[in-house]
Design goal:
This protein has 391 residues and is mainly beta. 2% of the residues lie in helices and 37% in strands. A four-stranded mixed beta sheet has the order 1-34-35-38, with no helix packed on it. Strands 3-4-7 form a three-stranded antiparallel beta sheet, with no helix packed on it. A three-stranded antiparallel beta sheet has the order 8-9-12, with no helix packed on it.
Length: 391
């Protein structure tokens, strides 16, 4: 891994999930963009774009770690964050009722104590019906890195933490819709390391990925499927699992999973950084990656035809040069209709969201795409060209 990758791996940002942005076609004017990294992009039902990260300004105006943009890139001033957060926003999940769950490495919002998680109303005010008490705690520095919602409205939270409301829960917990602990979801000793992503199936079973090697004291290397009560679903057979971190998981409509990360093997079989698994945890051998990626995959979005646009720290796929972004066909071959040009040349893209018109909003730590300056956010057309201007 090159120096950029090594530096990046030491940061506390992890998990990218697919988000659909609703909005009309328009030019995305970011001006001077963000002054630091974008970690998460999500949306409300009206198509406005929520952006979280470790930035403290956008277009040279102060916005601490969270902002909402209109479809054209302008700031939505109806979303009032006040003084914002005092630390990183790592994940954003919009509920079906428009309320916004925010997780990260923070301790306050608008000067009020909220440890690592909060729920906001659609105008940016605090939803006081979501009661977290003392929130998340840890012997070091707690953070929330992924949030998923079940069909019954329970909130499954993963990250790096030891307790919630002073109750032991190691790196994963399920909450009721009011913020209380769902005691029907029993994690026991939980995970021994960070949870970075959670994919909820239609039956509410959860496929969990991350850096862990055990769950409830049993060996599960960086991937596992849990039943609705928190117990291990042994029908999902992962064997020796992955030999390194998993960062991304996307579930297809057919129930198969695309998993990306830093691993070079799954079940001791060579698969470099990307793989597609069947519903039972077996390798889907119709997804042929050849030599795969030369460095980590951090995120992606799935297209309707099961093509997938991937971002990460890689600079090559199957021996050919692709700078940190690449679109694959459903069989793992390169989709040449997506022309990335020079790609991301200065630093790493981290999070990606797909609009209903097929355009992509990408955030991260980059300052250039295809040779043009874009500070930490850019919108691309379906062919890889930019739909973004700067001042």
């Amino acid at each position: 891994m090159n120096a950029i990758g090594v530096t990046y791996q030491n940061r506390k940002k992890y998990t990218i999930s697919e988000t659909v942005i609703v909005g009309p076609e328009s030019t995305f004017n970011i001006g001077t963009g963000f002054n630091a990294g974008v970690e998460s992009i999500s949306v409300q039902s009206d198509g406005k774009i929520l952006v979280g990260g470790d930035f403290t300004s956008y277009q040279d105006e102060t916005y601490n770690y969270l902002i909402r943009l209109n479809d054209d890139g302008t700031v939505d001033d109806s979303f009032d964050i006040g003084t914002g957060f005092d630390g990183l926003v790592l994940c954003i999940k919009v509920q079906s009722d428009g309320k916004i769950l925010v997780g990260g490495d923070f301790t306050t919002y608008k000067g009020e104590s909220y440890s690592s998680i909060i729920r906001l109303n659609s105008d940016g005010s605090i939803d006081t019906s979501f009661v977290i008490g003392s929130g998340f705690g840890s012997t070091s520095d707690p953070d929330v890195r992924c949030i998923s919602i079940t069909s019954t409205g329970q909130i499954l939270v993963g990250g790096s933490f030891d307790t919630y409301q002073s109750e032991a829960s190691k790196n994963i917990i399920q909450l009721n819709s009011n913020g209380s602990i769902d005691t029907s979801f029993v994690v026991g000793t939980g995970f021994d390391d960070v949870v970075r992503g959670i994919a909820i199936q239609s039956d509410d079973k959860a496929v969990v990925i991350g850096s862990f090697t055990t769950y409830q004291g049993e060996s599960y290397n960086r991937i596992i499927r849990l039943d609705t009560d928190g117990s291990i679903d042994t029908s999902f057979v992962v064997g020796t699992g992955f030999n390194s971190h998993s960062y991304m998981i996307i579930m297809q409509s057919d129930g198969k999973f695309i998993v990306g990360g830093g691993a070079t093997t799954y079940k001791d079989i060579s698969y470099s950084k990307i793989i597609r698994l069947d519903t039972d945890g077996s390798i889907d051998e119709t997804f042929v990656i050849g030599g795969g990626f030369n460095s980590s995959v951090y995120g992606g979005v799935l297209l309707d035809d099961n093509k997938i646009l991937l971002i990460g720290n890689f600079t090559a796929y199957n021996g050919d040069t692709y700078s940190r972004i690449l679109q694959l066909n459903s069989n793992g071959s390169v989709d040449s209709s997506f022309d990335l040009g020079a790609g991301f040349t200065t630093s790493t893209p981290w999070t990606i969201a797909k609009q209903t018109d097929g355009k992509y909003v990408i955030g991260g730590f980059f300052t250039y795409y295809n040779g043009v300056s874009y500070n930490r956010i850019v919108r691309l057309n379906t062919d890889g060209s930019t739909d973004t201007i700067t001042n």
